[in-house]
Amino acid sequence: MSKFRIPEDFLWGGAISANQAEGAYRENGRGISNIDLIPHGISRMDVKLGKVPNPVLDKNAYYPSHEAIDFYHHYKEDLALMGELGLKVFRTSISWSRLFPRGDEEQPNLEGIAFYRNVFKECRKYGMEPLVTLCHFDIPEGLIRTYGSWRNRKVIDCFIRYAKVCFREFSGLVKYWLTFNEINIVLHSPFSGAGIAFEEGENRNQVIYQAAHHMLVASALAVKAAHEQDPEIKIGCMLAGGSFYPYSCNPKDVWESVKKEQENLFFIDVQVRGHYPSYAGRMFEEKKVSLKIEDGDLEALRYTVDFISFSYYASRCVSADMENKTANDGNVVRSVKNPWLQTSQWGWAIDPLGLRTTMNQLYDRYQKPLFIVENGLGSKDEIAEDGTIQDDYRIDYLKQHIGAMKEAMEDGVELMGYIVWSCIDLVSASTGEMSKRYGFVYVDRDDEGKGSLQRRKKKSFYWYQKVIKDNGEYL
């Protein structure tokens, strides 16, 4: 175990997202978002993957995001718990459709602004820095229906209008911002990641990468707008992280891992370096992609991020012969089962050393500050007869990953902070389940949306409280 001492200004935190926690999906002027159209159950994955060209609400289906854990009405109670936990930073997101119900209005919904201002003030009350994501798998339905979501460059202007309102209205309350959550997930889950659905016969790669180009331009222009609003703002990108291991030392497997790393880091290469990477030309050619790049786009990309944030749950493993290997079905990112690693109850590889590897690779590549903004274990939690929740498995997972994080920092990696996903149970983005629990706080809600919504602290709550108090010395 590393003897490294974490700096005193290190940002220990916990995270939620609007679409997984807030609920209140039609209250006080909020419009519907893409996530509100993704049901629980057997059709969920087809909608997430963009296989349903025009998803609509089905009165017979259950949509977990519509009520979620009702953070909208419980935020004071929940943030008081986070203050008790001792968080230095509270990561959340803004529901774009709560501020701009259709997405293309000229003026924002004032009730939406008031809600978030109250949330951020409450964070400040407990000494927590808000870290806010502008677009956490969240795009208004109106932009999907009217423009086809990010496939249309008109959405860039809508996003920048939204971003500028956020920077202006929450000036002095929010110092840390992210543009897009796990921007690379558009490759793997296009509708949940970016509101992209496909018509029959479309070139999927062409649609995705043209949409990605628009998102990258929008992200860069948001960075520009943030710094113009307040030079003290720190604004970052966000990657669904995790290294791609070759399944074997067969050179073909190694080369496959190199290609997958490039594909995964493509977005961050642009957001950090300010231009398309050298390998993009051949990648686009092989994927039959021809980007439509308009005047000013490439110049806009030069507005680069201040830091690199990423999620880390698991490493990935790839082979040149994926079809004849046992797949790891637990994650939306396609992977071969790694024989050297154990998996969670949902099939995600548990690989603490992989976090150290990922941190070193990212820092060696970019030399910009890193920020771990999601790391955690989804698991079924049981309430004991005495009312306690003894989630030692979660403590063990986090303990190992924080240890690996400290080793990477001792390696010389510059790290701003560590944020656990999640500080409170919420709807799983991947499966839509409540039973896939991540939090330090248990929420009485089941996979069908039933329950009292009562909050209850788990054993891990008290453990993480001590970790923060001792600045990572105690594990």
Please tell me about this protein's structure.
With 475 residues, this protein is α/β, with parallel strands linked by helices. The protein has one domain: TIM Barrel. The chain is 37% helix and 12% strand. The chain is built from 15 helices and twelve strands. The chain has helices at residues 18-21, 44-48, 71-85, 96-99, 110-125, 141-147, 154-169, 190-194, 204-229, 251-273, 280-286, 297-300, 352-366, 392-410, 459-469; strands spanning 11-15, 89-93, 129-135, 176-180, 234-240, 244-246, 307-311, 316-318, 370-374, 415-421, 441-443, 455-457. The strands form three sheets. It has an eight-stranded parallel barrel, surrounded by five helices. A two-stranded parallel ribbon has the order 6-8. It has a two-stranded antiparallel sheet with strand order 11-12. Strand 9, helix 14 (392-410) and strand 10 form a beta-alpha-beta unit. Helix 7 (154-169) packs parallel to helix 9. The longest helix has 26 residues, at 204-229. The mean pLDDT is 95. Pfam families: Glyco_hydro_1. Keywords: Glycosidase, Hydrolase.
